[in-house]
Write a structure and sequence with these properties.
This protein is mostly beta strands. It has one domain: Porin. It has seven helices and 25 strands. The radius of gyration is 23 Å and the shape is globular. It starts with 14 loop residues before the first helix and ends with a strand.
């Protein structure tokens, strides 16, 4: 969310896209405004801590409550150099180190991040410490003009599309790293995986708009594609899977024919202004947002001989793992956005729509399932493609009444967003699942409602914030109250509480074979049951 220096407070989630886009635009402007040879440097140092506020149900004989779950130190440096007039070279570096807390050490002993360790301990801190050069260099690109109307950007970079990046529909150019903070981190620039890209922008003033197109040639590291979830059994693993590294039976396969990291991907977008409406239309070929379990066609568990599993492995003759593999299938996304101010409501309304062709879903055949679903968990009966329409409606409004009611120095910023994923040609007999390993059947519509309340006191030095969300289709939700304090010109202190609730949770004792095939109907926020936490950060800006 923050490019260069961090913002002074807890900005709403929606602002991450705006801030990132504004930062990129500012870089382009700076390339033209800077004197040749000028170098601009900024960044921050940040210490983050999080504490468990509940005792996890899936860490037997261990009391997780009050345990320090994250002690993360980050150093960020942004450099912008103009070697000649109109040309900008941008480099963004990030060095991250974490303390291996007693809580993480316990998860590691249980088996977290223990892939291929042959019963020995893995090194969980390899997941969190970012000190290799490929990790430290977050972005590195050159930006230069091509004629009077075009600019070309070459190198490792981030591209942000859409009207929201909170359960986004169109911001799918890159994957995200949700292993260290899941979806709660408002600085999406810190979570987004940058890629090696060639991007061209062409201004078309005659039509009040411009064209943006990019190509990703497939030169990135394998791990730089797709959104990465905690399948390693660590602090953001879904409840009932603590200490379980799924790669031992379902390793990643970045060379699957349906989702090869070497594939060329890219997109094109037109953005314009029609009267008072900002709009865009786009096409994107990219990797699906979450890893899919591509089950093995032959069962190789527990020393048994290879036997048919009743599953057809996609994109290959068979999986690379004993029970399957994790893949990121390529999808086509046709998108559109619009936003504008409404005088009658004194608010800004925005919408975002994405038609996603052949989106992958896990399948569970119930009583007709194959050997894998019976032995392991729901979702091991294959992958089925469905066309979906993802959309979002948002209203942003300043509420002046809070100056009188709550004593704020300025009107409270309020944002409400409604999201939906509509499965077209829905058939209940397809038996689609929301996630592998969970028995919750996917409905035709998946509605999610979120709200943001942003306050300001003491000339912006104290900023309370509240983010709430409710799953209208499956039940459950979250609430995140926080306050950010500007201690001085360069220092920011934030305190936050992350609370999840759910209507139907998974009970570990009911998910063991042979009940695994139909053990629960856990909703999205049920995955984070007992994962509540208290979070705080101290940031020095320079």
């Amino acid at each position: 969310m923050r490019s260069g220096k961090e913002s002074g407070g807890n900005m709403p989630f929606r602002m991450s896209r705006i801030a990132a886009a504004a930062a990129l635009a500012a870089i382009g402007a700076a390339a033209q405004a800077q004197e040749p040879g000028e170098i601009n440097i900024d960044g921050f140092l940040k210490q983050e801590l999080s504490f468990n506020t509940s005792n996890w149900q899936d860490t037997p004989d261990y009391d997780d409550r009050g345990k320090l779950s994250m002690a993360r130190t980050t150093a960020r440096v942004n450099m912008d150099w103009s070697p000649v007039s109109g040309v900008s070279v941008v480099a963004k570096f990030r060095l991250v180190g974490e303390l291996e807390t007693d809580f993480l050490r316990h998860l590691e002993k249980m088996g977290a991040y223990n892939y291929g360790a042959s019963g020995g301990r893995g090194n969980l801190m390899d997941l969190y410490n970012k000190n290799r050069i490929s990790d430290v260099v977050r972005e590195l690109y050159v930006d230069f003009p091509l004629g009077e109307r075009s600019r070309l950007r070459l190198g490792k970079q981030q591209i942000v599309w859409g009207e929201t990046d909170f359960f986004a529909a169109n911001d799918l150019v890159h994957g995200f790293d949700y292993t260290w903070r899941s979806f709660l981190e408002p600085a999406n620039e810190e979570l987004r995986k940058a890629n090696i890209i060639a991007k061209l922008n062409i201004d078309v003033p005659e039509l009040d708009g411009g064209l943006e197109m990019f190509v990703r040639p497939g030169w990135d590291r394998k791990s730089d594609i797709g959104t990465e979830l905690d399948v390693y059994g660590s602090r953001w693993s879904t409840q009932s899977t603590a200490g379980v590294d799924f790669r031992n039976i379902d390793p990643y396969n970045f060379r699957n024919k349906d989702g090869d990291a070497r594939d060329v991907t890219g997109g094109i977008r037109w953005s314009g202004l029609a009267k008072d409406i900002n709009y865009s239309v786009s096409y994107l070929k990219t990797y699906w947002t979450t890893p899919m379990l591509n089950a093995s066609s032959t069962l190789k568990l527990f020393g048994s001989p290879d036997v048919p599993s009743g599953v057809t492995t996609v994109g290959g003759k068979d999986s690379v793992g004993a029970a399957g593999e994790l893949i990121y299938p390529v999808v086509d996304v046709f998108g559109a956005t619009a936003s504008g101010y409404s005088e009658w409501a004194d608010a800004v309304f925005s919408t975002e729509v994405a038609y996603i062709k052949d989106a992958p879903y896990q399948v569970h055949k119930g009583g007709q399932g194959g050997a894998l679903s019976a032995v392991i968990a729901p979702g091991f009966d294959g992958i089925k493609r469905k066309n979906i329409l993802a959309w979002m409606l948002r209203m942003d409004k300043n509420i002046a009444a809070t100056q009188q009611w709550l004593g704020t120095e300025k009107p409270m910023f309020f944002s409400v967003q409604l999201f939906d994923k509509w499965i077209m040609n829905y058939d209940r007999d397809d038996r689609l699942l929301n996630a592998v390993g969970a028995g919750q059947r996917t409905k035709e519509h998946s509605f999610l409602l979120t709200g943001i309340f942003d306050l300001s006191y003491d000339n912006g030095r104290i900023k309370p914030n509240l983010v709430v969300g409710a799953d209208l289709s499956y039940g459950g939700g979250f609430v995140v109250p926080s306050v950010t304090v500007e201690l001085s010109k360069n220092w920011r202190w934030k305190v936050e509480y992350d609370k999840f609730w759910n209507d139907d949770i998974r009970k570990s004792e009911n998910c063991a074979p042979p009940q695994a095939a139909s053990c629960d109907s856990m909703s999205l926020f049920g995955y984070f049951h007992k994962r509540d936490q208290l979070y705080t950060s101290l940031t020095y800006l320079f």
